[in-house]
Amino acid sequence: MLLGIIGAMNEEVIQLKEVMNLLETKEIGGYNFFKGTLLNKEVVLVECGIGKVNAAICSTLLIQEFKVDKVLFTGVAGGLNPEINIGDIVISTDLVEHDFDCTAFGYDYGVIPRMENSTFKADETLVNLAKRVAANNFGSERVFVGTIVSGDTFVASNDKIKWLRDTFKGECTEMEGAAVAHVCYVLGKPFVIIRSISDKANHDANMNFDEFVKLAAQNSKLIIEGMLKEI
Ligand code: SAH
Q1: Ligand 1 touching residue 201 (CB < 6 A)
Q2: Residue 175: which pLDDT band, with cuts at 50, 70 and 90?
Q3: Can you tell me whether residue 8 is helix, strand or coil?
Q4: Quick one: pLDDT at residue 93?
Q5: pLDDT in tens, 53-86
Q6: How far apart are the first and last CA of the chain?
Q7: Catalytic: 199?
Q8: What is the number of structural domains in the chain?
Q9: Are 33 and 27 within 8 A, CB to CB?
């Protein structure tokens, strides 16, 4: 089995790259795909860059070019649920593109017209495995399983938090997960998005992000490693 692992930023993939046994690097369109083994599992690791389009390109390439069987995303996110603190873990049950807005035609926010489905469900087996590994590492009180909302926006306002909670019941927000989920849904691949909280998406979000991004990325990476041992 070949696993695709994606992170958006260098901070989110560097620690995995350092411990993997790198066999080959393939560059496509400026994205570097690292092929090798990690804890004796065959993997392709890629830093996709920030935002939904970058994430969609890399997910598609992982699946079509590298023929990965499953896709895991590791990274950081802004917490929306007030019970979630910096460093806590959110595992996706499903993902929505929160900035999709065709409400002018009577659609709800997040609904993609002419698609059967706009809420992309993660693979239950991967979700349960991620949840168990995360709880073992961090304690179940620090692990949240629920909806992740993605958009091409760094969320840093209480009004936006309220809107995202009221509209989508999002546990956390980030900029890539729903794009990965959308591609995996279209191409029929199981996936899960694992995020550790770097900030609380409020007016301090940019400062908190800079301070906690490394720690949060490390938390998420620990879960990926724990999952690889059991996958
Ligand atoms: N400071 C960075 C930009 C980070 S963008 C730079 O200058 O390069 C934020 C990244 O972290 C995205 O990949 C996104 O997925 C995630 N993220 C963390 N907190 C977020 C928030 N509050 N809103 C949206 N995305 C967030």
Answers
A1: yes
A2: very high
A3: coil
A4: 99
A5: 999 999 999 999 999 999 999 999 999 999 999 9
A6: 9
A7: yes
A8: 1
A9: yes
